[in-house]
Amino acid sequence: MTGLELSVALFLLANLVAALIAAERGPTAADRMLTALLFGSTGVGVLVLLAAAMRLPSLVDVALTLALLAAIAGIAFARRAWRGISGD
Amino acid sequence: MTIRNLPLGAFLVRGLAFALLWWVLADGRTDAWGLGAVGAVAAAAASLRLLPPVRRRIGIAALVRFLAFFLWNSLRGGLQVAVMALRRRPGLRPAILEISLALPPGAPRLLLVNAITLMPGSLGARLSDDGRLRVHVLDARLPVAAELRALEVHIARLFGVARGGAS
Amino acid sequence: MIEFASAALLFIGAFFYFAGTVGLLRFPDIYTRLHALAKADNLGLGFVLAGLALRAETLAAALKLLLIWPLALAASAAVTYAIAQRAETLGIAPWRGEEEP
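Predict the joint structure of the above. Result:
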């Protein structure tokens, strides 16, 4: 059933593209920051689906690393915001 | 580098946890277990230095209850926002709530602020040092404040801390 | 049976991703869009990971897939909070309802 995984992956990719267009058009800078969120959830989802569909287990490692980096970046980001040092 | 009271129990537990993590990351293969063992010991030693074991223990039962509560409510939250996005009229009535947290600063508050975003209808927007939290809600008609109190109770129980201050 | 459950989980995951994208496109302001992305997309990822874990060949591979979810959750919760706070600092007022565009 690799066809299912591949089609779900393509579906997510289409979602990602639609959301990217929306974020790029977004009225405020904050809207554009939504891309950071998108790659955390959709990007990782696409990677793990491709890993299963293409029988490339190492893509799971890529997804895991991406999630780990996103978590570290997110926490660093939030900590900075935490202390109110949000320089522009 | 003092070894006055080496927490042997904590070292063993953490080493075992890191060894398990290695096993998972290596896809269950055991051909490089020597490297994994070295890694697990080093990681356990580093973790003891960075995060010394504390007296305050998180009980397994409280953890399971918290996880069940969290999973159930994030499912509810996701369904709710999905319905709002897909129905003909989203019917949003956003508002900003301001609540004062009863949890002590530090890890409990940090967990609360992060978990709030996955709970039905609420989004943490700003936490000030005096424990006042501004929450953006999707629909002011939903009982978000009551749900946040429930989350707070669960987190307080998880960390074994009293909910002092405002209620 | 497992194959069926796994396929169902993948479909549910795709549904939540789709709902998140629709919310992103339809919701009126940054805060409401954050709600849609943070809640729906993370749930979508959770279901996709669970569906793939069911059909993983080894227990370790399944656990590895499930390990991704808490990391992604931590990342998105922190980033969501940071964006919301930033938006507040910038003075972006939340959208207040249909009567006030």
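The radius of gyration of chain C is 17 Å.
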